Amino acid sequence: MSSASDHDVLVGMGFPADKVLLAHPGDLDEPAEGETLGGEPSGKPAEASSSKEDDGEIQDGEQTAQSLMCDECQKLFRDASAAERHATKTGHVQFSESTTAIKPLTEEEKAEKLAELKQRLAEKRELRLLQEKEEEKNREKIRRKTGKELTDAREKLEEREMQKALLAKKKEKEEERLAKAKIKEQIEADKKERAAKREAAKQANLQHRQEEEAAEAARVAQASKEYTEARLQIRRPDGQPITHTFQSTDTLQVVYDHVTPHIIGPFQLATTFPRRIFGNSEMGKTLKELGLVPSAVLVAIS
């Protein structure tokens, strides 16, 4: 039951409307000025004068309104304030005056109604406390659920961030490994290239020394002995070298004519060390005059 209906109960018990304050039930004991509790106003005569007091009969139409009645639910109300509260609570709007007087409550009935009202108020307070506790439990459940969801979301986010960090670290390590492998390959390639260059230089120096030794031996032999033959090795631009023994008195033209069928295109003859290219002016000179006796290595230059 709402506070408005409790108010109606108290008013129905005879308490004055301006004294019915549920927050201050002690005020209910004091009647309004000019009224008696559950009775008529104090200033009203005890006996109403009437022109027909002798027989107590009234004519039709002389009835006076004793209350207000709701035409929709047939409930009686002491005054317009009570009817207005009923209309607000129920939505009923059809009211009419009634000649039926609302019987005043006895003191026992008033006490019983008041005790019942207090009981209902206590039950309402207890119910409100239970509802508030239940609502607090529900709010606590919602807070816990929300907190758990936030915690789960935070943990998932941290897990994703950790996975990202691990993947980034793994990628960084892989890139570092590839970079180190590439550097190592480059170092190995540089080592091989330097070794190949050293080997090539070594072979070139060895060949150079051999040629120097051969030339020196030829000069020594020529100085100590008179040779009549010259053994020449002619290196072609491609293919195997040509080796042939000529007379020391043969000219360079004889050597050129001997080599020409084995080489495609024009060419010139030259010594390897010291470097000397023979031109047309040397074609008529003998091999002895050119210092090619007893042996020499010539190169055919295209």
Q: Could you walk me through the main structural features you see in this protein, from its secondary elements to its overall organization?
A:
- This protein is 49% helix and 12% strand.
- It is α+β, with helices and mostly antiparallel strands.
- Among the domains are: 3-33 and 62-104, no CATH class; 226-301, Ubiquitin-like (UB roll).
- The strands form two sheets. A five-stranded mixed sheet has the order 5-4-8-6-7, sandwiched between helices. A three-stranded antiparallel sheet has the order 2-1-3.
- Strand 6 and strand 7 form a beta hairpin.
- Helix 1 (3-12) packs antiparallel against helix 2.
- The model is unreliable at 22-54 (pLDDT under 50).
Looking at this protein, list some descriptive labels.
single chain; 302 residues; alpha+beta; Ubiquitin-like (UB roll); five-stranded mixed beta sheet; 4 helices; 8 strands
